[in-house]
Amino acid sequence: MEPFTVRILGCGSALPTLRHYPSSQVIELREKQFMIDCGEGTQIQLRRLHIHFSRIIAVFISHLHGDHCFGLPGMLSTFGMTGRTAPLHIYAPSSFEPILQQTLDFFCQGLGFEVIFHGLDTTQQKVIYEDRSLTVETIPLQHRVECCGFLFREKQMLPHIRRDMIDFYHIPISQINNIKNGADWITPDGDIIPNDRLTSPATPARSYAYCSDTRYIKSLSKQVQGVNTLYHESTYLAKDADRAKLYWHSTSEQAAKVAHDAKVGKLLLGHYSARYNNEELLLKEAQAIFPNTILSQEGMVIDV
């Protein structure tokens, strides 16, 4: 099975600390890499974690708060200096387009590669990217500015060939793809060998949901129902729920409620407030509701 991983570059919130970088992640599936959010220091983290600049094909920006996008201009400039030639696709709220263009015109002339902007309507859940391996769709969220999360869904793979049956019936290699796509096999004597005897079920498709800055949304569980891994911001402890409500953020308990109601595989917490020196308290509160919860940390690689 091909790796489907999430690498944490930053999991802190807006106020800088010595423990955490601002939000950024790199998703990898079938040798393709995608970045979600790009806070300050992202390109340093790419270097530190030995992630090749040239392999990132798209950047998804959840919203236009600095701790989620201030790292983008510097990273684009560096991509130009390192000789990138492949286009880079940027998906972000539509209002970001004139800002990005002005930044490129002022700081990033002569990049050597094309920056292709895709404006997002953060109020709609829709597929915004698709290739042979996966789709990416937006998840509308509720924050102080227009904001959305992203849902990465692997496309269902074909069934597995049963090598013992292929050998037993002397089926030529040229017919393997047909059988994977559902064909039966007819022997030279005219006997029909049904497809389900020649194959075993495909590996279930995997999915990852990234829910960036948002207040608690009870209905969010329906949009991320059954995903293998859910990242949900957990800026505050339950005792600071009033602050979470004021700044349109979530508590770790609220993140766990979404995970519980959505019946996800595991929950990943992040976007920690700088006011806490012990994030284990956030973890403890979440695990009381949804036991399979982990804390994101810089450098961590999560198998979706």
Automatic annotation (TrEMBL):
The entry's keywords: Endonuclease, Hydrolase, Metal-binding, Nuclease, tRNA processing, Zinc
The family this protein is said to belong to: Belongs to the RNase Z family.
Source organism superkingdom: Bacteria
CDD domains: RNaseZ_ZiPD-like_MBL-fold
Class of the enzyme per the UniProt entry, highest EC level: hydrolase
Catalysis performed (reactions): Endonucleolytic cleavage of RNA, removing extra 3' nucleotides from tRNA precursor, generating 3' termini of tRNAs. A 3'-hydroxy group is left at the tRNA terminus and a 5'-phosphoryl group is left at the trailer molecule
Protein name: Ribonuclease Z
Gene3D superfamilies per the UniProt record, alphabetical: Ribonuclease Z/Hydroxyacylglutathione hydrolase-like
Gene Ontology MF, one: zinc ion binding
EC number: 3.1.26.11
Record's subunit section: Homodimer.
Function text: Zinc phosphodiesterase, which displays some tRNA 3'-processing endonuclease activity. Probably involved in tRNA maturation, by removing a 3'-trailer from precursor tRNA.
Cofactor note: Binds 2 Zn(2+) ions.
Annotated binding of Zn(2+) 1, by residue: 63, 65, 143, 213
Residue numbers annotated as active site: 67
This protein's record includes keyword Acetylation: no
Binding site for Zn(2+) 2: 67-68, 213, 271
Cofactor section: Zn(2+)
Annotated InterPro entries: RibonucZ/Hydroxyglut_hydro, RNase_Z/BN
